[in-house]
Model the fold of this input.
Amino acid sequence: MVQTTAPGFGRRIMSTAPRWDADAAVDGLYAAHYRRLVRLSVLLVRDVETAEEVVQDSFVAMHGRWRTLRDPDKGLAYLRQTVVNRSRSVLRHRGVQARHVPPVVPDQHGADEDAVVSERRRQVLDALRELPGRQREVLALRYYLDLSEAEIADALGISRGAVKSHASRGAAALRHLLEDAR
Amino acid sequence: MNDFPDRPGGADHDGERLRRLLDDAVSDIEPRDALGSIHARTKVTSMSSSRSWFLGAAAAVVATAATVAAVTVLSGDGTSDDPGFAGPSPSAGTSPSEATSPSTSSEPSPSETAGPTEAVPVYYVADTPHGVRLYREFHDLQTGGDPLTAALSEAVATAPDDRDYRTDWPGGTVVAAAGFDGVGSDGQISITLGNDGTDLRERPAGMTAEQADLAVEQLVYTAQAATQTRAPVQFFLERPGSTGNRTDMLLGVPVSEPVSEGEAVDVLAQVWVVTPAEGAEVTAPFEVSGLAAAYEATVEWELRQGNRVVRKDFTTAEECCTMAPYSFLVQAPPGEYTLVVRDTDASGGEGPGPWEDTKQVTVTR
Done:
């Protein structure tokens, strides 16, 4: 049987995986992935508080679905998918630009150097916000989470061909935007 | 690294640069600890989740319904952020064969007389401010034990009850065969379509690519609802001289591999009225229920007569930002009304406009 969704899910033997209940799954996946998922959402929605809400909601949703997920890999895949979906919903519903920029935290660098670094980060986040939603999502999943083309297709519910074209168009558009910003 | 081989020269270099850029862009984000607040929320959820409450209520309706009830069954299956599956619900208490031929043999003869009917979910397309999207109706059908074929046949060839909805399938399209070969979502749905006058492989003149996409999604969602799965769909086409060959395209949409459902947020209208159905006759007060993925979970409604707004109010769906149940009671004097349910326009009029669903309703007393 050919199946385009969830390749390998449920068929893999998880003999070494812990048998977590829903609470343990939340704790385990939170410890390993919470920060990364918030950062993923920041790449999508820009605003940090919104990203935190999106990810927390996603953990609560995963807890509710744990009976059908049952293994940590599936839990993580569900979290990623839910974070992307909810980030998209938030953008659609708000229809507004980001309210906050990431905080500049002065540390051991001089103030000028901080300003340069934070300006560079701001430009990247701004440029991402300019991209069509799908391109932004594909780039974030591909280059921030390092997912494979198949995993991205699965998480976004689109074909691999679409992943490819969003990735190459998104990369080109981002390069263009960042060159303009300089 | 060879996932994107089509990127022109220096693919690895380009990928590395993007990786560094994105990583750096969020490297200073240190989210506040949230484990405590997640725990607080999951404790509540596991004790009395809205989902299980709703399932229980739906089951109770199925158990007592003697006539057609539009019952929404939210399933815990699947992983997408979607409204869940709409399962068919048995509805008729007595079969027509019993009612119309009391004096003949009690031996059932399903081939001669119509069997009991089932309320089968059927998806239709409609234009919204956000483009073409899917809405769902329940149709009371004699399925002969095959709700899948019955629902798909409705979807391609039967006009919806709601005049705002439609099917974009070319006239003359038939469902030659449909089947599901598995259990749960571990299987595949097969659909064989035919049309004597139109080549369904190509997108017909006058149909946009978006309409073609949604026409395919319409069948995927209808088939998944009828089988209560999220199984992918393999399409076959019946052509003159051949019965049911796999096809690489359907209305110009690539379908050589089994097709999974599109994301609910991209495919479904985000506000649905489930009851009352279009054209329903009700007695006041009547309950309106449906599903909505509404901004801040706020659902607005109006009861109109012509351009005059007779009643208006708002309610709250059980969750924000995902298709979640809502319901409210409407009190109104006898008459014919248009019921409008919509989400709030978060963009203050600058966006494409709110999602909405409208139903013609007659209050009889």
Observations:
- Chain A touches chain B through 76 residues (CB under 8 Å).
